[in-house]
Amino acid sequence: MNTTDPIAPVFYKVGNRQREWKLAVDGAGTWSRGRVPLTRRHWLKWRGGSNPKTLRRERQLVDKRPLWWVLGLGALLVATPFLSDQAISIASIFCFFAAVNVLWTLVIGTAGIFSLATMAVVGLAGYAAAAANVYLGVPWPLMFPVGAAVGLVVGGFLALPSTRLDGLYYALLTLGIAEICRVFVSQIKELAPMNGSINKVDSFIPEAWFLQRPGLLTGFFAAFVLLLLALLVFRLVNSERLGLALQAAREDEAFSEAVGIDYRRARLWVFVISSTALGVVGAFYAQFYRSISLSVFSLDQLMLLFAMIVIGSLGRAEGAVVGTAIVVLIDRGLTDFGPVRIILIAAVVIAVTLTTHHGLTGARDQFRAYRNRKKSERRALRAEKGGEVLPEEATEMPDKQEVYYRLFDKRIRDHLKTLITPELIEEHKARPLGQHSDALDRVLNYFRRGEMPDKYAILREGPMSECTYKIMAFSGVAGYPPRVVDDRHYDTLDEAYHAVFLLRVNDLLES
Amino acid sequence: MDASLIVYAVNLAAIYGLMAIGISLLWSSIGMVNMAHGATFAVSGYGAWYAAVTFGPALKAALGGTAFLMPAMATMLAGAGLVVGALFGLLIYWLAFLPIHDKQNFAVRSLIVTLAINLATVQVLLWAFGPRQKGLPKIFGFGRLDLFGVHVRYDQAATIVATTVLLGAVLMWLRHSRKGLEIRAMMQNAEGAALSGISARRTALPVMMLTGALAGMAAVLLSQTVFVSPTAGAIPLIKGLTIALLGGLGSVPGAVLGAILIGALEALTGIIPFLGQRYVLFVQFAFIVAVLLIRPRGLGGLLDETRE
Amino acid sequence: MSKLLEVKGLSAGYGPLRVLHEIDFSVDRGERIAIVGLNGHGKTTLFRAITHLVGWQRGTIRFDGTEIGGVRSLGEGRRTPSIIRLGIAMTPQGDAIFPGLTVRQHLDCGAYSKLAWRERARRRERIFDIFPPLRDLQGALVGKLSGGERRMVSVGRALMVDAQLYLVDEPSLGLAPKISRRVVDALMAIGLEDRAMVIAEQNVSLLTGKVDRMIGMHAGRLRGEVGHVELG
Fold it and tell me: Do C198 and C146 fall within a single domain?
């Protein structure tokens, strides 16, 4: 006697739903979403929907990047006060460099202008602010506006050649400017009597606390605030109109100008804004170290900053911050290794550049694009035009009837293709209207059942006694009249019927 | 104007020209900006020094006192410089060209990788040989000859002659040889070149070894006046890059013209009273800035076959 | 003697678009074949699949016994030079020319084998016999030539080397009828002892009666003789 054990059903998870995080909400209440004050933007990008099976309301966070930002920066802020003195100063340096890099990304990433004058601007503004404080007695809170003003002026100068020179030529120009600044500053004896540096600069860190732990903590918190401000500036420029205009111009200048974007003015603005911000950073630098020296213009420092930007991603603020973190950790955290750490940084840069197209933060998108390409290639290998719906597409279609109809239609068409023979065509030519064979009937039924855009019409030209006929095709769209297919004209209606039949057969065989 | 100043200027121009042409050539043929050229320079200098230390005594023992000693030493040093330069060019080919030459974003990525190579190499040299400078034996002696009433040091004369010959040979090779034709075809239409059986990888290799050898030669020649040190490559790289850009990136004749101008400028700056040596870089940059503002594509921008 | 070119089950495309659907196709030595069909139906993709310039491809391609097909690996066009050097010469659609080189230099580029390079002067003369206008334009930059002259240079370049298989893609594209007839006549005049020539062409009338076989390509599939329905 045969007994069969009951088979436990196996459920295979199909589709994307299980990979998404959804919050269950009470559907009865109203949904109030907070907005950022003074704007109409929401804080977080929530999207509401219903679970297709249970029909309960649910929400999904579409853009999770604010979460990562808050987690990362929050961890930094909370953990640092508990670390050693050296760690705190490393964290401060990280915040400072990250701020510089974020602003640099605005120019080199969003606007696509290869500028190497960042530290030159920081240095010039820092020297101006320090000189104002030491020689002119300007109180330290006003050093920031002084730095900003200097940054503004320098930014204006930098913007002018940027639309004339492009790419590497502009990089060379800015490199030259940095070198010129260095020589210039070192030559002005009144400015810096002692080997080019200005000391005893007044600061937000009280003299007594300087180089002590309270001073380090103050410095760190101030640097953290600086980083937040830099991120704010980046966000305000990059994601708003100015940033979009710049990105369009970065891709193709001629097209963007044709669309009406004044990219010269946009570039001027981005230089002015980023340089002003860098001026503030310069003033901060002078206050943080309570002095400023020529090392701010050094090429090695610039190369290190460039490595930070490059490791992350040329164009995203996350990239600047991540790259800065990696390089600062290696550079300052592993000082025992000596010059080997520079080699390590270089090795990281090479590894990242050889494997990713756009830096570390672009790696996920790159991988996804690669996976999608492979998937679509495999799908192309399997799919046929107008054939069945593939499983991964079917789960996304809410109306399953449509899925089955496509399958049904395909089967009918395959069958009808086998029925089409020269004899069938001859049969129709001999007698378009009238008694037909079974095969011809089936074909004609399928044609008659088709949708409007697939059908043809016959146009009669001339008076009834001596008229000719032409074939027209329907557009299928309301408001658009049918159009004549070609120039051939037919003398009898039967010929016209047969011509329409041949067109339909052709369409069938091609589908 | 002292005629020896002209000689000095031409001497400098020759050495910088070697670097600049290497950079321009590489960009125009495979579209890669080689920021590691300075590293090639420094490494070749050390290679020549190592050869001098290892084989010098043997050569002195064998040929000491004869007239053959100088030429033999010169050949050995030059050979060492060329070989080490070419090998380093091979390393750059392997690391910065091969993995990414047909991938996205190649120009920027190769720039970054070569920059990193430069950075790493300087540190390696620092760690291996220490920061102090090393001197190379003076292969041309200290004599000078009188040419039409102008004092020319032996090493200056040799530099100018050697460079002219070398560069002339390279340019002739580019214009007339089969490899040169393949290189020019490849830079104008990559797909057409592939369909004519020209492989990008096989064409890039000799070009990179050649430009490496040129940098090596420059190192050996310049080390007659300057010591060999890990950071010795920085200034020649900057000068080479700026001259290449001044002449229009990709234009070899432009690079030559730029080299002559910059060499002259450097010589002039040295003797003008209130400027002096310290302002050399400053003046050169100011000049280049001025030129680029007037002609954004550099001097040779209108010449044939320049890649954007 | 084995067939010169054997293609079995070749599918190829770009990204999500599949252009060729399981093509089976073979070429014998001494044959002159025309592949005809409308634009966008896969003729160029077939040639590019043979020389490994498509997005992706599956199926076997055997050239003179050597397998050259296979899944496209990393870089597009990376294997192309080595495949070409096996003995294929291709004139791509729209001439891949080098704007800054002269006519003479173009022809020299085509001579990729050692033998062809050594006797390149003699072969250039032969090309000038086939396309007389080029003789006067020897030193001219190809970037400045007209469409017909460029086509002659492009075809001439493919003829410089003794390839086993000539792939000519749309020789009449963009040319006036008189010039395209001259180009096609030149192609027909080349004697193929144990070589083969495959021409992809839209204009059927140019080639009717002059080739050994004429295969139609429609929607990425080969369909025997020309067109199944005259309309549409």
Answer: no
Segments of chain C scoring below 70 in pLDDT? 1, 70-77, 224-232
Q: How many independent structural domains does chain A possess?
A: 4
C229:A502 CB<8 A: yes
Backbone angles phi, psi at C105, to 5 degrees: -65, -35
- If residue C166 lies in a helix (H) or strand (E), which one and from where to where? strand C165-169
Q: E strands within A108-179?
A: none
**pLDDT for A386 beyond 60:** no
Question: Measured in whole angstroms, how far is the alpha carbon of residue A366 from the centre of its chain?
Answer: 11
**Would you state the structure tokens that stand for residue B225, as one six-digit string?**
């006046």
CATH number at residue A463: 3.30.160
The ipTM of this complex is 0.84
The angle, 0 to 180 degrees and rounded to 10, between the axes of the packed helices B37-63 and B234-246 is 120
Residues A128 and A55 in one domain: no
Last-in-domain residue among A270, A297, A324: A297
Residue ranges making up the domain that contains A442: 420-510
Output the CA–CA distances (angstroms, integers) from residue B227 to B14, B36, B37, B38, B45, in the order listed.
18, 19, 18, 15, 9
Q: Structure pTM?
A: 0.77
- A380 in contact with C, Cβ within 8 Å: yes
Residue A299: both structure tokens together: 């090429």
Which residue range forms the structural domain that includes residue C179? Answer: 1-85+164-224
pLDDT tens across the length of chain B (308 residues): 566 777 777 887 888 888 888 888 888 778 888 889 989 999 998 888 888 888 877 877 777 666 677 777 778 888 888 999 999 999 999 999 988 887 877 888 888 999 899 989 988 888 888 777 777 666 555 556 666 666 677 777 777 888 888 888 888 888 888 888 888 888 778 788 888 888 888 888 998 999 999 999 888 888 777 778 888 888 888 888 888 888 877 777 788 888 888 888 887 777 776 666 667 777 777 787 788 777 777 776 544 444 44
Residues C214 and C102 placed together within one structural domain of the fold: no
Chain A partners of B234 at a C-beta cutoff of 8 Å? Answer: 299
- pLDDT band per the 50, 70, 90 thresholds, residue A203: confident
The pLDDT assigned to A75 comes to 94
The DSSP output letter for C35 is E
Distance between CA atoms of C216 and C210, rounded to whole angstroms? 16
Widest pairwise Cα distance in chain A: 113
On whether the CB atoms of residues A281 and A226 are closer than 8 A, the answer is yes
Nearest Cα residue to A129 out of A298, A287, A296? A287
Question: What part of B 144-183 touches C (C-beta under 8 Å)?
Answer: 178, 181-182
Based on the domain organization, do C104 and C157 belong to the same domain? Answer: yes
Structural domain includes residue C230: no
- Contact between A492 and A467 under an 8 Å Cβ cutoff? The reply is no
CA pair distance A329, A321, nearest whole angstrom: 12
Given A254, A278, A297, which residue is the final one in a domain?
A297
Domain presence at residue A225: yes
Residues of A with CB under 8 A from a CB of B: 161, 164-166, 168-169, 172-173, 175-177, 179-180, 183-184, 299, 303, 306-307, 310, 314, 338-340, 342-343, 345-347, 349-350, 353-354, 357-358
